[in-house]
Amino acid sequence: MTDPTPVIRVKDIAYVQFVAPDLEVMESFLLDFGLVRHERSENVLSMRGLDRSGPAHITRLGETACFDRVGFCADSKADLDALSATEDFADVRPIEGSSGGYVVSGRDPNGFAIDVIAERKPLAEIGELARPAPVSNSVEGRRRRGEPIRLVPSPSQVFRIGHCVLNVADFARSERWYKHHLGLVTSDQIDLAPNTPVGAFLRCDRGAEFVDHHTVFLLQGEEPGFNHAAFEVVNFDDLMSGHTHLQKAGHRHQWGIGRHILGSQIYDYWRDPYGNVLEHWTDGDLFNNETPPASVGLAELIGSQWGPTSGGPA
Ligand SMILES: [Fe+2]
Q: Which domains are assigned to the chain?
């Protein structure tokens, strides 16, 4: 059920943050994954996509590798003040590093650290896409004439972060928390039986504006844990080229390539050197406030429209 009076309505996911014992090892994987270095100090590695919104993947140096937190974007510092006034969030403070802006940090009912940021400076343009989408020929239209496709072997070009999936200890309580504090709304609820929810794909509520099918997916698990984070790449060719690059570089493949049922994305899942699962995706659904929530079963969650039918996270 939608919370009619949420504290704020976030506008997107901002970043995922991890702890790792070797930033060099992490950066080497992330470059192969298709992210670009934003900043690196002795203790922090910040990576970005092609879009200008800011660092999308952050790693702090630490002895034990783990998932650290997820960050969301709010409209204004006033939103951060509103969260700070609730008992689950601390004081608003300036963001460390060169990106400017403010952050408020809190904890969800599972103990996950949650950042909400605002007024971060837009990053400089990286430049034109190195691999613009070639015009496609199909039986519906033979538009590419006299021009062969010649893709340059390279990593995917990650554009932006799109969602984070969390395994939670108490789905109903967790869902209430995210809807109340961040204003998320349901796209698809996973029901084991009628009115027996075990998970939900939640999107940002931006009214009539179309947004990703999900920004957060909460899934009932035996214990809380990071499931995966997903990054949008330029197009299908870009996803496939990135797959070949990661494979040649010897990285660990997790699941794919296929097309999800819920959200419709073409997906490809990989593990970083510390076992965290990161997804490439392209061609996902966009919903707005005209799209009613749906109730679906487990088969739709784990199934694919094409590609493998099982083997990885949702
Ligand atoms: Fe995903």
A: 12-123+157-306 (3.10.180.10)
Taking only the tens of pLDDT, the chain with its 314 residues reads 889 999 999 999 999 999 999 999 999 999 999 999 999 999 999 999 999 899 999 999 999 999 999 999 999 999 999 999 999 999 999 998 788 999 999 999 999 999 999 999 988 887 766 667 788 899 999 999 999 998 888 999 999 999 999 999 999 999 999 999 999 999 999 999 888 999 999 999 999 999 999 999 999 999 999 999 999 999 999 999 999 999 999 999 999 999 999 999 999 999 999 999 999 999 999 999 999 999 999 888 888 999 987 666 54
Q: Calculate how far, in angstroms, residue 76's C-alpha sits from the geometric centre of ligand 1.
A: 27
Q: How far is the CA of 4 from the centre of ligand 1 (A)?
A: 27
Distance 233 CA to ligand 1 centre (A): 13
CA of 48 to the centre of ligand 1 (A): 18
Half-sphere exposure of 73 (CA within 13 A, CB side): 22
Burial category of 91 from C-beta neighbours within 10 Å (exposed 0-12, middle 13-18, buried 19 and up): exposed
Cα 281 to averaged position of ligand 1 atoms, centre (Å): 8
Could you give the 3-state DSSP secondary structure of residue 177? helix
